[in-house]
């Protein structure tokens, strides 16, 4: 008797690509599908286009573009306005995009970005949200340096004395900012804390102009922080990314250099959650 006759077949490991398939784009790409996606992306950026205009701007024949558009139309990804004779993005595109947003976890997507930011700057990288008038720190990647900032997940910090807090305040509309300034106690934590509403408004205007906020020993003596906002699909600032560390390493002459990777990290996370990214300034 051969015992192998009764052996259970081994379960196959789930694979994301066929066995033996390599990563050469030229070999694995379906050219017609790739061309269709180019048309779809083009139309998403240039809503309301005539067939001839799309063909001319994409340097393709009208017949080819028409076949692609009618195929996409059959899936609801684009639609045709008979009255204006223009092509638009269709409702199915929104449904698919909404599904992506539902599976998006900002904290999860931020983790590799925070790690890279820590490695690029050598300082602790943080992620925080606004919660009931304070900054709630939800994720952190600590630097390997002996002296470092530490904000464990769940830590709350006042908005007016926090880099992330000021980055978010700077993006609030006028009415919401007015309500915050009318109700929030601008307590002093150090002799550098901004406690005057007019002075805070001026600081927030500077934040808007340069694209990043600075906590210059405003919460803890000897510690500085540089922060930039993260935007959602509607262009609203929903979170902030920062680096923080001792003034001995984050000197005033280092602010401009360190601000760029912070803004780039915030922009990368914005794009990762499908948000409307602001250009990196500076």
Quick summary:
By secondary structure, the chain is α+β, with helices and mostly antiparallel strands. The protein has 10 helices and 8 strands. It has a 6-stranded antiparallel sheet with strand order 5-4-3-8-7-6, sandwiched between helices. A two-stranded antiparallel sheet has the order 1-2.
Helix content: 40-55%
The total domain count is 2
Low-confidence stretches: 1-9
H and E order? HHHHEEHHEEEHHHEEEH
CATH class of the largest domain: Alpha Beta
Shape: elongated
Overall radius of gyration? 25 Å
**From the helix content, strand content and strand pairing, which structural class follows?**
alpha+beta
Strand order, sheet with most strands:
5-4-3-8-7-6
* CATH arch. level architecture of the largest domain: 2-Layer Sandwich
Beta-strand proportion: 15-25%
The CATH superfamily of the largest domain appears as GAF domain
Rounded mean pLDDT score: 86
Largest sheet properties: 6 strands, antiparallel
- What is the end-to-end distance? 77 Å
Helical stretch tally: 10
Count the beta strands. 8
Kindly identify the CATH topology of the largest domain.
Beta-Lactamase
């Amino acid at each position: 008797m051969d015992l192998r006759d009764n052996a259970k077949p081994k379960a196959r490991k789930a694979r994301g690509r066929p066995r033996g398939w390599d990563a050469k784009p030229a070999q694995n790409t379906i050219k017609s599908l790739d061309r269709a996606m180019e048309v779809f992306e083009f139309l998403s950026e240039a809503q309301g286009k005539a067939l001839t205009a799309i063909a001319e701007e994409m340097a393709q024949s009208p017949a080819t573009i028409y076949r692609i558009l009618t195929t996409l139309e059959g899936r609801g990804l684009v639609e045709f306005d008979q009255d204006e004779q223009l092509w638009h993005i269709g409702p199915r595109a929104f449904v698919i995009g909404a599904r992506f947003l539902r599976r998006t976890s900002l904290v999860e997507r931020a983790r590799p970005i925070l790690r890279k930011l820590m490695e690029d700057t050598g300082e602790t990288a943080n992620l925080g949200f606004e919660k009931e008038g304070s900054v709630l720190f939800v994720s952190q990647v600590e630097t390997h340096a002996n002296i470092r900032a530490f904000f464990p997940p769940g830590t709350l910090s006042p908005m007016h004395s926090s880099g992330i807090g000021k980055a978010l305040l700077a993006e609030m509309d006028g009415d919401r900012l007015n309500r915050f300034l009318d109700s929030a106690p601008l307590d002093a934590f150090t002799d550098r804390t901004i406690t005057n509403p007019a002075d805070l408004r001026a600081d927030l205007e500077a934040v808007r102009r340069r694209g990043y906020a600075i906590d210059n020993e405003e919460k803890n003596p000897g510690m500085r922080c540089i922060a930039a906002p993260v935007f959602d699909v509607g262009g609203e600032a929903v979170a902030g990314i920062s680096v923080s560390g001792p003034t001995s390493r984050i000197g005033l002459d280092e602010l401009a250099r360190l601000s760029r990777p912070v803004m780039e990290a915030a922009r990368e996370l914005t794009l990762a959650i499908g948000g409307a990214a602001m250009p990196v300034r500076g």
